[in-house]
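Checklist before submission:
- one chain only
- standard amino acids only
- sequence pasted in full

Submission:
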Amino acid sequence: MTLQKSFPLYDINITISPVDNQPPSIATGVMFVVEEGSAAAITINHLYATDLDTNADDIQFVLASPPQFGYIENILPSPGFEKSNMGISIASFQLKNVKAQHINYVQSRHRRIEPTTDQFMLYATDGKHHSMETPFYVLINPTNDEVPELIARNITVQEGQMKELDPSVINVIDLDVPQDTLMFTVLQQPQHGLLVNGMYGNDILRYKHAINGHQHHELPAHGFSMELLKNGMRLMYMHDDSDSLADAFSIQLSDGKHKVSKTISVEVIPVNDEKPVLSKKGKIEVNMGEAQIISSAVLSAEDKDTPRDHIYYLFERVTENGHLQLKVGHDWVVLQSGMKCTQEDIDMNFVRYVHTGAIGSKKDDSFMFHLWDGDNRSPVVVFSISIKGMEKGNIAVFMKPLTVLKGDRGHLMTDVLLAVDGTEKPEELLYVITSPPQYGQIEYVRYPGVPITSFSQMDVAGQAVCYVHKSKAAAPKDMFR
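Returned file contents:
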C-alpha cells in the first residue's frame, strides 16, 4: 500500500482592477440666466457630468470654444494664496468647483452692443477619455447700462420768426435694448424767445395771440418725451422779435438712470424793421458871416436796430442864406439837395452851417431832410437856423498888468488884454503896436525871436502872443502902446 503525502491548502486573494474604458457623460440642466454687465455662478443645476469609473470630484470640464460676450472665472484662490482669482479668465475647471459655486460666467462685453444670448462649447474629461462637445447656452437680461447720446445742433432764425427743432437739430442715440423711456427737460429757457409746442405750424401770429391771451397753458414746452417727438409733436423755437443777435437754451435728456445736457446756440438774423426817429431837435443861432457846427446836442437821431453810422440824413432842401457843409478829410464840402450825411458825422462835429447872406440882413434860414436807415424813412423834418445881426459898435478895451520874470516870457491872455465891440468877432479886432516895449519885444509864440507890430484879439484868446523880456538892465517894469 502506497502512502500519499498531503500538502496544506492556501487561499490567494486576487484584486481585479476595473478597466477605465468608459468616457464621462455631460449634462446641462436649467437655462443659465445672467444680468447684462454682471456675473452669475454656474451650478450643478446648470451643468453636471458623470463617469461610471471616475470619482465625480475628479471630472474636469474643458472649454472647447470660449463665450463671445464674456468669460469663465474661478473665484477660488490658487493653492497657497489668499487672493481670489476673480476677473481671471480660465479655460478649464473641475466639477467639485461647480458644486462649491466657485465657477462664474461673467458678462463683460456689453458697451455699445446689446447681446441677449451667448454660448460656449465644453466637454468633460477624466484625464483619459472625454465626452462629446456640448453647447452651454447663456440668456442675458438687458439692463439700462448705456448712456444715451444727445445730438443737439445750433440753429439760425430770422428776427421775429420761428424754427422747428426737428431730428436734424435734436436727436438721440440710445443703444439699450429694449428702448428706455427718454425724457427731455428744458433746463434753461431762451432769453430772447420761447420753446413752444408747435401745434399751429408756422403761424407765428396765432402763437403770439394764444400766449398773450393765456389761452394755452400747454403751449410753452418745459418737458417732453422722445416718443412724443417721434409721434407728431413739433418742437419750435420762437424769437421774441427783439433786436438781439444771439440766444441760447439748454435741454437735459434722461433715460431714467443717466442724464446728459446740451446747450443750443441761436444765431439771429437781424431784420431792419425799426424806423429812425429824432431824439433831439433844437436850433442854432448864427452871426452873419459866421460858421456854426451842427452838433448832436441840437440834432440827433436813433434807431433801435441800426448803428449810428447807418442812420442817414437825406437832404430834401438845403439852406438859402448860407451853405451846409460836410467835413471830408481836411476840406469842407458843400451839401446839395439829394445828398446825405450820417448821424456819426454829426456826432463827430463834421457838419456845419456857414452864413453867406448880406450884412444887416436878419432873415432866418432852414433846411429839410428825411431820416433813413436803408429800408425805413421818416416824414420830412425842418431844422431852423436863427441869424443874428452884427452891427459894429464902439470898441471897449480892458487891460491888467502882466508879470514876467527877468529873462522869461509871459503870454498875453484875455485876463490881461481884452477888446470887445459887440460883434463877437474877435478875429476882426486888431491891435497895432505904436510904441514897442523898451526892455523886451512882442512876438508870436510859434515864431520866437521875431518881433511883431500887430495882432488880433483872436490871437490873444488863442494864447498865441507873448511878451519876452530881453534886457540885462535892472528895470522893474516895461510897457508898450
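Reviewer check: The first strand starts at residue 25 and ends at 28.
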